[in-house]
Design goal:
Layout lengths: L2 H12 L5 H8 L16 H5 L5 E2 L5 H13 L4 E5 L3 H9 L8 E4 L4 E5 L10 E6 L5 H13 L3 E5 L13 H9 L2 E6 L5 H6 L6 E5 L11 H8 L6 E3 L5 H12 L2
Parallel strand pairs: 1-2, 5-6, 5-7, 7-8, 8-9
Antiparallel strand pairs: 2-4, 3-4
Helix pairs in contact: 4-5, 6-10
Pfam family, one: AIRC
GO biological process, one term: 'de novo' IMP biosynthetic process
InterPro entries: P2CMN_synthase_LarB, PurE_dom
Length: 256
């Protein structure tokens, strides 16, 4: 039961359309269900404002479908699925049932949406997603599509890294940076982009280190440590390749 359902239920009690006893029974519905391999959280949106998201990596194709069906059947209008393989997306399409209104999948970001596809941008301002290079785009798209799913207007600034800093400080890019409400700075290698943007912007900057880089980048650890040690104020850092976490946090900031 989502928040709007509870509001409707209380209105029905107020208007005498539903008895107090019937309302109590509905409110006592279990907040989760034990499916053996998963316990989908039906009250996530009541506690956190957004429904549960399915992390697809490591789950079987069947498990992803069954969890999505269960969430949709219990009031979620749409379900975000991250780190979903192309094979899993094809299986999902082949096994859609009446519980699933629609389904879309983006192979680059490995992000899928099950259920209602229409999205309304309700955020206060815009979220800018910037990358150091083209190789960072898959993580950036995970962040961008997560933010869009959660109701935000997203502007993409890709391949504006410090190796060609003039790409970042031209008027068009600077206008986007200076007018943003939140910025997600995504970079591998030495991860310097977050510090540069942090020194230019007057809004929160969420840094995302990526596993892009040569041997001594240690799979993103070098970028992570650089971002954690940024001297620019207002820069926070999420885990390596965690585009979803950055997009979710940016959405929370953009809705306050």
């Amino acid at each position: 039961m989502v928040e709007k359902d509870i509001e409707q239920l209380l209105c029905e009690v107020k208007n005498g359309e539903t008895s107090i006893e019937e309302a109590v029974l509905k409110l006592k519905e279990a907040p989760f269900e034990d499916m053996g391999f998963a316990r989908p959280d039906f009250h996530r949106s009541l506690r956190q404002g957004q429904g549960e998201v399915i992390y697809g990596q490591g789950k079987t194709n069947e498990q992803i479908v069954e969890i999505a069906k269960k969430l949709l059947a219990h009031g979620q209008e749409r379900v975000l699925i991250t780190r979903m393989s192309k094979e899993a997306s094809e299986y999902f399409k082949e096994n859609m049932t009446s519980e699933i209104e629609d389904f879309s999948y983006d192979e680059l970001s490995k992000v899928a949406v099950a259920g209602k596809q229409v999205n309304t941008a309700e955020g206060i301002g815009r979220i800018v997603v910037a990358t150091g290079g083209t190789s960072d785009i898959p993580v950036a798209e995970e962040a961008a599509k997560t933010a869009e799913f959660l109701g935000n207007k997203v502007v993409r600034l890709y391949d504006v890294g410090v190796a060609g800093i003039h790409r970042l400080i031209n008027k068009k890019a600077m206008d986007e940076i200076m007018s943003a409400n939140v910025i997600i700075a995504i970079a591998g290698m030495e991860g310097a982009l977050a510090s540069v943007i942090g020194g230019l912007a007057d809004c929160p900057v969420i840094a995302v280190p990526t596993s892009v880089g040569y041997g001594a980048a240690f799979g993103g650890l070098a970028a992570l440590l650089s971002m954690l040690n940024s001297c620019a104020s207002g820069v926070s850092v999420v885990n390596i390749d965690n585009g979803f976490g950055a997009g979710y946090l940016a959405s929370m900031i953009n809705h306050k």
